[in-house]
Amino acid sequence: MPFYTADISDEHHEKVQVLSPEYHSYGGVEKCKGPIATLKLNEENSDLIKMLKEPGEGRIAVVDVNRAHYAVVGENLMKFAHENGWAGILINGYVRDTHITKTIPVGLWALGTCPRKSHKKQPGERDVTFTFGGVFFKNGEILLADHDGIIVIDEETLEG
Ligand SMILES: O=C([O-])CC(=O)C(=O)O
Ligand SMILES: [Mg+2]
């Protein structure tokens, strides 16, 4: 079903959460939609690699890395996401290899780019709730993105 974030915002203005405009698109698609799967990271991305190697089933990985200035996604992770059926990745942090990530048909949004990655091994935490960009993220809620921005809404409201 085609959708527009602007129309959904109008229809459900009391229930829609709108992400702040500081997140930019670095993926090969700007329009995508899917249930959220959360992951909290501490600079380092090995738990995100693990997650993107699992079946995505059209979900969107929402990753809070607390704005750490290290890239947590690049060409390789985008390829894993594409191969395993993830619709998109939203990072509260930074990405790299963007000349290639822009050619891979998965959504990717981040604060910006950074050439380095972290080599510190640190565990992440899956399926947690957190807030960034003015949005409260919780597993299962629906993220929709298009050229106007990114919104989050619960499935019942969206489908009802
Ligand atoms: O290797 C990493 O951790 C990030 C990256 O550059 C890639 O996904 O290609
Ligand atoms: Mg790379």
Automatic annotation (TrEMBL):
GO terms for biological process: methylation; regulation of RNA metabolic process. Its cofactor is Mg(2+); a divalent metal cation. It comes from the Bacteria. Its EC number is 4.1.1.112, 4.1.3.17. It is an enzyme of class 4 (lyase). Keywords: Lyase, Magnesium, Metal-binding, Methyltransferase, Transferase. Mg(2+) binds at residue 97. Catalyzes the aldol cleavage of 4-hydroxy-4-methyl-2-oxoglutarate (HMG) into 2 molecules of pyruvate. Also contains a secondary oxaloacetate (OAA) decarboxylase activity due to the common pyruvate enolate transition state formed following C-C bond cleavage in the retro-aldol and decarboxylation reactions. PANTHER family: 4-HYDROXY-4-METHYL-2-OXOGLUTARATE ALDOLASE 3-RELATED (PTHR33254:SF4). This is 4-hydroxy-4-methyl-2-oxoglutarate aldolase. It comes from Sulfurovum riftiae.
